[in-house]
Structures are given as C-alpha cells and as structure tokens.
Please model this.
Amino acid sequence: MKCYNAYENGNMKEILGETLRPGGFSLTDKSVQFCRLEPKDAVLDLGCGMGATVGHLYLRYRIKAVGVDPSEKLIGYAKEKYGFADFVIGTGENIPFSEDSFNCVFSECTLSLMEDTDAALKEIFRVLKRGGWLVISDVYAKNPGLVKGMGGIPFNTSMRGLHDLKYLEEQLKIAGFNIMHFEDCSGLLKSLMAQVVFSYGSMGAFWNKVTDNCEDVCKFQEILKACKPGYFLMITRKGDSDYE
Ligand SMILES: C[S@@+](CC[C@H](N)C(=O)[O-])C[C@H]1O[C@@H](n2cnc3c(N)ncnc32)[C@H](O)[C@@H]1O
Model:
C-alpha cells in the first residue's frame, strides 16, 4: 500500500516542533543519563526525521550521532540545519551500516512506523556492539486488540502502529535484547493532544490538516480512540546480562 508520510507535512512541525514526537528532548536526556553515553560513543538515530536529536546530542553532550530516515525531504532539512552531522537515507528494516557499528541506537517514535518490526529488531541487533543500548520511546495501545483495524489506513503516522506492549516485550526478548528500564510516559502524549486541540479546535481538524483531508480520517479517529493510546520509554540492551 502506498502511504502518505504525515511527518513531511508542515503542520506536523508547527505543532510538534522539531522533534516530531511527544515530550521534546526530555526522554532523550533521561536515556543519555541512564545509558551513561559519552562523546566517544557511536550513536545511531533511527528514523531521525529533521535531525533534531542528532543536533541535540552533539550540541548538549558532544556525542556525534548519525541519522537515518527514509524521507528524502526530512533528511534534506536535517542536512541543511545540522551540517556538522551525517544523515543517510535508509530504513529500520535495512540499516545502511555494518555489524557492531554502534554503542547505542535511538528509536524515538519510529518503531511503530516500521512495516516489519521483527526485521527492524534484527537489523538493530546486527549494527549494535555487544552490550549496546536500544532506546525506544513510542506509542502503545491500552486496548491492543483493536489496532488491527488500522490496517487499511493510507497514511503513515505512529498512531497507526500502536504497540501491544506484551507482544513487543516478547519480540525484543526473541531478538536478543534485555529490558533494563520501562516507564509509562502517557502524560506526555496527553499534553500533546491537549496542545493540538487548543491549536486546531479538535483532533479531527488536526488529522485533516496533516493528511491533506484524507477520507479515512473519521474511521482512523474512531479506532484510535477505542485503542486508548499511551506512550512509553523502554531502554534495552543487546546480549546476555554478563557485560560490565
Ligand atoms: C514520529 S517521527 C519521529 C522523528 C524523530 N525520531 C524525532 O523524534 O523527531 C517518525 C519518523 O520515522 C520515519 N520512518 C518512517 N518509516 C520508517 C522506517 N521504516 N524506518 C525508519 N524510519 C522510518 C519517518 O520518516 C519520520 O521521520
């Protein structure tokens, strides 16, 4: 199915700012501290969008991250704004780097957009060094049974791929990751939705804007509401638990 990438729409940036997700850099900063990342660490921002996290990691921590995203348009903005960093076109399912390249991979509100999560987790495992970190902040469904109803929605937003947390935990374990930290951050999503309603009048008006009035917006909204979306931070680590 050909999907409309809602993140390329200017209204997304207007409401979300440069970080195209809830919470700005708050969860990024928490993760840098949790993983004790340092300037010597090699970091990948998978689904970097306009490059905000890559820029932030360097300007605040002197950590040189590389950004990967499938959108030429968003990668174009990133290159223009953060000329000091590297940005490459690619997807989570096919990461354009060799094995054991990174100490940490950030997937900030992007795993939910990937067509094949298992393939993406395999790829992340491959490019991470032993003991490397995978930081996931993303949307989930408190009623995960209803998410399959989103199948035919023809625009690409994280909200179409709300995680089933139990299933994601299993997928991570099978892929070889240990979960080191979990935090429910649904308050950040709630604040963002309140901000959207304040700015656009309703969630429906917002979705119409960012999808150029796609006819499926009503159906999407109905299913979304019934799924009861939440937001989480999960920090995982590659390998057995015998690293230092
Ligand atoms: C919610 S935005 C988050 C962007 C960025 N991580 C941030 O926090 O600002 C989702 C991003 O995932 C990208 N994306 C979509 N499908 C992807 C895939 N298969 N692999 C990697 N990134 C993908 C989109 O182009 C978009 O830039």
